[in-house]
Amino acid sequence: NQDLNKEILPVEIDQINPDKLVMEFYSDEPGLLVLTDNYYQGWKAFVNGTEKEIIPVFGSVRGVVIEKGENSVEFKYQPVGFGWAVGVSLMSLVSIIVLSYILIRKE
User: What is the chain's Cα-based Rg?
Assistant: First the structure.
């Protein structure tokens, strides 16, 4: 397969945190950026500011399609259900405050 004969270029990572990875680089042609860490749901990829699909590569690592030219790629970890958990926590807090207020007024 001729695609497997393409040149493999290393990419320098500009920022790395447990929940965020940022890199900027130039590519002579469109391609697939592959990270060698494990693919895991909850990661989102942004290429030049636009959200892109993360592709499981070889079933265990993650990749994202890149464009020809300058690329800014950002991976952010946003666990599935995190928004729901925050919403439920806030509603619980509001309920506790309201119930406390009602009980205090009754006394």
Answer: 21
Q: What is the C-alpha separation between 16 and 38, in angstroms, rounded?
A: 15
DSSP state of 57: E
Residue at token pair 């993360």: 54
User: Taking the model in full, what pTM does it have?
Assistant: 0.68
Cα–Cα distance measured from residue 101 to residue 107, given in angstroms and rounded to the nearest whole number: 10
Reported as a single tens digit per residue, the pLDDT across 54-81 is 998 888 899 999 999 999 999 999 877 6
- Segment 15-30, tens digit of pLDDT: 999 899 999 999 988 9
Residues contacting 96, CB < 8 A, separation 6+: none
Contact 48, 71 (CB under 8 A): yes
Report the C-alpha gap between 90 and 47 in whole angstroms: 32
Per the structure block, which two tokens stand in for 72?
């800014």
